[in-house]
Predict the 3D structure of the following.
Amino acid sequence: MRFRQARIDSLAAHSDLSNRANLGVTHIVLYELAPTRSARCRWTLLEAGLEFESRGNSSEVFDGEELRQLHPLRKLPTAVIDGKPLFESAAICTAISDLVPKRRLIGQPGTWERALHDQWTSFVLTELESWLWSTDLNTDENGFLMPREDQVPAIVVQNQKMARRSAAVLDSHLEHTDFLIENRFMVTDIIFGYTVSWLEELGWIHEFPHLTAYLNRLRTREHCTLPLHS
Ligand SMILES: N[C@@H](CCC(=O)N[C@@H](CS)C(=O)NCC(=O)O)C(=O)O
């Protein structure tokens, strides 16, 4: 499959991945299922203007041998970029953004913007999302994420306490800026946006007005894939 946008970006080549895109040979397959973290990758691909092949979009994808071959824990999202498997939603979103430098979804490697992308991505995933994930694992009624007998629901109190500390940091950062970096929408906002939407789903967002406003701002974007929660 060939991509017009990737060819347009040919002058800005700086990595193996973007060189491939510049030659117009990037073929992207995304294993996804709408409510999962794969929403980050779909949104990034749409913002990047890249075509891709979607696989999955049904819970049966978890049972298939195909996903097991590509992801050691058989998880979503997983992507295959020019035949090479890549897992972890943030890694996939970052690689996609690097394919289309002209879209300015991410700072170039070696820049301070890129260092801030790495900082906020790590912070969001390790200092905030981990507590939300633990909460889902330990309260999953159908035992799909973790067998009921292994769950420790009491951990949720501690998870909420830890999540609040980190959410407060991000809430105060977003008091004076519309987006995480340089006051400009970037892939870092796609990664974080999914986590904020998860915070909302758990009912833990109310005390953070700037996160609520940020989420509303992200939802006005044409390609936003974030689910709506009541
Ligand atoms: N850190 C990973 C998390 C991947 C993950 O846990 N995905 C979930 C769906 S959102 C999954 O595949 N769960 C199935 C399972 O845990 O077996 C990422 O960001 O991609």
Q: What stands out?
A: Residues 77 and 88 are 7 Å apart (CA to CA). The two ends are 39 Å apart (CA to CA).
